[in-house]
Amino acid sequence: MSATPQQDGSAAAAVASLMSMADQEAELEDLLPYLKHGTGGVRRAALSVILEVHPEAAAEAILVGLEDPDPAVREAALAAAEELRQFLRKEAALAKAMMKLAIDDTEPAMRAKAVRVCRLQQWETASWFSQRLQDSAEAVKKEAVAGLVSLDAGEELREAARDSSPRVRRAVAERIARLGAEQVGKLAWEMLDDPDPLVVAKAAETIAGLALQLGTAQQAKLLDLGSSGSWEIRKGVATALKSVTTDAAMALLCDLCSDANADVRKEAVRSLGAGVNRPEVARVLQEALVDADADVRAYARMALAAPQ
Length: 308
Prior knowledge:
Elements: H1 11-23, H2 28-31, H3 40-53, H4 58-66, H5 71-83, H6 85-88, H7 92-104, H8 108-121, H9 126-132, H10 138-150, H11 154-161, H12 166-175, H13 181-191, H14 197-210, H15 216-225, H16 231-240, H17 247-256, H18 262-272, H19 279-288, H20 294-305
């Protein structure tokens, strides 16, 4: 049996010893003591070597790493847990340690990564992810949102959609398209009233992706947002009106084709394709053929060439 890490002297010597042991495919019992070395860098190296030489001991080594006082070691253990997740799904002790770290770790980044692993491993419930929305760190809340979406937990996501952080609400707006159509439609319409322009814009784009039949009130809401001072919202509205061919919708899309923002013009031109048989729409698309933006010109050509 090799000497213990403490007898090996310096951290550099311990790491060199580990590298040599890795080349020699040392026994697991000779490598495990390095996980208790006094230097975090050595413990991190030991974790890496054990995972490489003895993958069958991954759960044991990662479990020790998750409880390490050095954030760098815990981060390495979290990364390993994610990378090897297909082999660790049934490790109850590891799941318990991961959930504890997600709640108790002092580093927000560590808590967020632990929540992510719990989601990927399907180790927790909607209730547990909902509780993580109470965390003080935005990164943790965003991972909790992802967990709730993975469980199709629309009701719990409503809490996240009202979070004080715009970034958390944006995370909801960006991910809700993965929910069931009924849930996402209802939540997306509610988020059109959000005070943050990026949330509203993403919600509008989500509505477009659902290809819903828009009622009169819903169309009126989108038309009203079409004059927003935020180009992101105007772009989202132009996308959401793609399947709407009312006179009011066509008029707004024609106006947006001359918007100062090229991204807004692109979406407006694309959405106008449904009404290209209208003289006023065809005229606007003809004008878009000489737009300063190449993408706008390309979309206008495609719309005009499409079969009627």
